[in-house]
Amino acid sequence: MLTRFLLAGLDTKAWVLLSVLAVLAVAVPFMALAVPPTSPWSLSMLTVTLLGKYFCYALLALSLDLVWGYCGILSLGHGAFFALGGYAMGMYLMRQIGSRGVYGNAELPDFMVFLNWKELPWYWHGFDMFPFAALMVVLIPGVLAFAFGWFAFRSRVTGVYLSIITQAMTFALLLAFFRNDMGFGGNNGLTDFKEILGYDIQAPATRAGLFVATVVALAIGYILASAVVSSKYGKVLVAVRDAESRVRFLGYDVEKVKLFAWTLSACMAGVAGALYVPQVGIINPSEFSPAASIEAVIWVAVGGRGTLAGAVLGAVIVNYGKTWFTGVLPEVWLFALGGLFVLVTLFLPKGILGLAGDLRQRLAARRSRAAAGSNAAKEATAP
Amino acid sequence: MTDPLLYLDGVSVSFDGFKALNNLSLMIDPGELRAIIGPNGAGKTTMMDVITGKTRPDHGTVMFEGNTDLTKLKESTIANLGIGRKFQRPTVFEHHTVLDNLELALKNPRGVFSGLFYKVSEEDRKRIEELLDITKLSPKRDVVAGGLAHGEKQWLEIGMLLAQDPKLLLVDEPVAGMTDAETEQTAHLLRAISGKHSVIVVEHDMVFVRELGVKVTVLHEGSMLAEGSLDTVSANQQVIDVYLGR
Ligand SMILES: Nc1ncnc2c1ncn2[C@@H]1O[C@H](COP(=O)(O)OP(=O)(O)OP(=O)(O)O)[C@@H](O)[C@H]1O
Ligand SMILES: [Mg+2]
Predict the structure, then answer these.
(1) Cβ pair A235:B111 closer than 8 A
(2) Under an 8 A CB cutoff, do A242 and B95 touch?
(3) What is the pLDDT, as a whole number, of residue A66?
(4) B41 lines ligand 1 (CB under 6 A)
(5) Which atom of ligand 1 is nearest to B42's Cα?
(6) Which positions ≥6 away from B9 have C-beta within 8 Å?
(7) What is the number of structural domains in chain A?
(8) Nearest CA to ligand 1 atom 7
(9) Quick one: which of A135, A97, A124 has its CA closest to A274?
């Protein structure tokens, strides 16, 4: 039943994307590790990490598209779930440092020693074990999303008001995580990681491994999201987006419909954050900043909301643009991003993928018209 | 004498002091088809809002099947008790195909997980075919509902209502935008489904109401003005005054 459920959602678009991911999962590590650095086909570790980062963002965008594109919930706080997943992973990585920190304290992370703390806070317990940390990566964002959604959806907060409170949520977390006494490293966050699962976190093979893990997570996320949106539940989700009260009069419990997608989406965002942190080597409160969440919305809008593949595409393209701009004209990037958002909203309401779909439709229409025309011509010449 | 399926007792609703429903009482028997008429703003749609849980009344109760007070329940619960509704402005899911609209309405478990793992059964397929036939939308089954004409949307929404297989159907102005022939077919259809289901129809189209040939309730300023056959109520002096705007 599960395989049928998972495979049922895969269309051509999905197979293309999954094939590309499969090729990258093999080619990128090969080009980075096996191809000699002198060859033009060689990839630097920097590029591998950069690509890994893009795909983490792609998974975040995918999770956002699930709620925004299919359920109409414009979350301006999805970065919070990403960051919480990231912090859960960061806590595991901090615990792996052990006595190799600056203060050489086997039990306490450096920032706690610095703050004169004598023992590990209770909520840090268990994070030295990877399975526990991995569970927390999905559980913490999931529980927060569930609680948030429970109250917001039951009080029927929708539209702009809902967007504003998602933004308030991430902003509140930003302020909280800035505080030193929260026990998450305050302003500086968590960093100076050494090992993951016993492997040196800087080693090329580990970096390649993290890249592959990210690609696999993105692929799984994509398959899961496609299965969800193409099921009957997915159709209810779209119906809620388009005519919420009508769905109620059909007997569906709209709160539960929203809550499921919302919570699932938060868990996916958490996984994205957890994969991001070991690759960039740091997690700090800036990931909670409202701007970070808004950027994710722009990726989805650019790629085309409500298409899943568009979210992935948008995240990769916009972040590639960001890398390029910040290298060449760093001061222009924010204007370029803002301008891009305005352009897309005005001229490409369905994003890049929507444009491609429209073009294909127009082409098909022209072809069928041409066919009809030649048929008419044939009929006219027939006796 | 059977117990009524639906019993509105002294229902009042006010919007900012304006009484949209004023101590309205109404009884619908199982299997009955009832027409409700009344000038614009009489409170007909508001009455349906109260029955379906969209609007909470200030006073009064709405008893369904004798012992369930609908005024305490939420929309989805009421729908699942067996009350379906067609809106005055046809509301279908514009981005879904005709087929998907019907599939979503079909009487099946409404939970998240039954939705995730739902697979169209042979029975469901047959039922959908039937509904496509009844609504004459068979050729348009794969068209997205947003691309349908106004009358077709009306039919689709009626089809969705039938797919729910409710005990009570609330039908708000079903023939707006339909041709005379379609209007007649709609009257026919509603007559055919009453008996097994109870139906309340709100309509301004008197030709249609005459076609139905059932008991008529006249609403005015949120209260019942008259009740009886169309001929009786149209002979009623108060009703004539109201319709002539005196
Ligand atoms: N949500 C609301 N807020 C304020 N006033 C409302 C609301 N809903 C309805 N009304 C008012 O209540 C009165 C009754 O409205 P209702 O829609 O029930 O009339 P109706 O009989 O269905 O009329 P029509 O034949 O035009 O559909 C109207 O005066 C309307 O303006
Ligand atoms: Mg009305």
Answers:
(1) no
(2) yes
(3) 98
(4) yes
(5) 21
(6) B25, B60, B61, B62, B63
(7) 1
(8) B15
(9) A135
- From A85's Cα to the closest Cα of chain B, the distance in A is 25
List, in order of start, the domains of chain B with CATH numbers.
6-244 (3.40.50.300)
Report strand pairing: B59-64 vs B68-69: antiparallel
Q: How far apart are the first and last CA of chain A?
A: 58
Residue linked to tokens 């500086």: A188
**Distance separating alpha carbons of residues B233 and B239, to the nearest angstrom:** 7
Question: What domain range includes position A267?
Answer: 2-289
The DSSP element (H or E) to which A41 belongs, if any, is: none
Ramachandran assignment for A203, one of left (phi > 0), alpha (psi -120 to 50 degrees), beta (any other): beta
d(CA A300, CA A351): 8
**Given its phi and psi angles, is residue B19 left (phi above 0), alpha (psi -120 to 50 degrees) or beta?**
beta
pLDDT by residue (tens digit) across B35-86? 999 999 999 999 999 999 999 999 999 999 988 999 999 999 999 999 999 9
H or E stretch at B221 = none
- The DSSP secondary-structure symbol of B216 reads E
CA end-to-end span of chain B: 38
Question: A103 — phi, psi (to 5°)?
Answer: -90, -5
Dig out the tokens for B41 from the structure.
């703003």
A332 in a domain, yes or no? no
Q: What is the structure's pLDDT at A289?
A: 96
Q: A35 and A29 in contact (C-beta within 8 Å)?
A: no
- Best probe residue, ligand 1, of B14, B46, B170 (max atoms within 8 Å of C-beta): B46
Q: Is the dihedral of CA A140, A146, A149, A154 positive or negative?
A: negative
> Is residue A36 situated within a structural domain?
yes
How does strand B33-37 pair with strand B198-202? parallel
Coil, helix or strand at residue A177: helix
Distance from CA of A24 to the nearest CA of B (A): 31
In a domain, A134, yes or no: yes
User: B170 alpha carbon to ligand 2 midpoint, in Å?
Assistant: 12
Residue A352 lies in a domain: no
Q: How far, in Å, CA of B32 to CA of B5, rounded?
A: 9
**Residuewise pLDDT in 10s, chain A (383 residues):** 778 888 888 888 899 999 999 999 999 999 999 998 888 888 999 999 999 999 999 999 999 999 999 999 999 999 999 999 999 999 999 999 988 988 888 889 999 999 999 999 999 999 999 999 999 999 999 999 999 999 999 999 999 999 999 999 999 999 999 999 999 999 999 999 999 999 999 999 999 999 999 999 999 999 999 999 999 999 999 999 999 999 999 999 999 999 999 999 999 999 999 999 999 999 999 999 999 999 999 999 999 999 999 999 999 999 999 999 888 888 888 888 889 888 888 888 889 888 888 888 888 888 877 776 665 555 555 44
Optimal mutation site among B50, B94, B117, B121, interface A, most CBs of chain A within 10 A: B117
Size of interface A-B (CB pairs under 8 A): 76
Hey, which residues 29-68 in chain B have their CB within 8 Å of chain A? 52, 54
Place of tokens 């959604």: A149
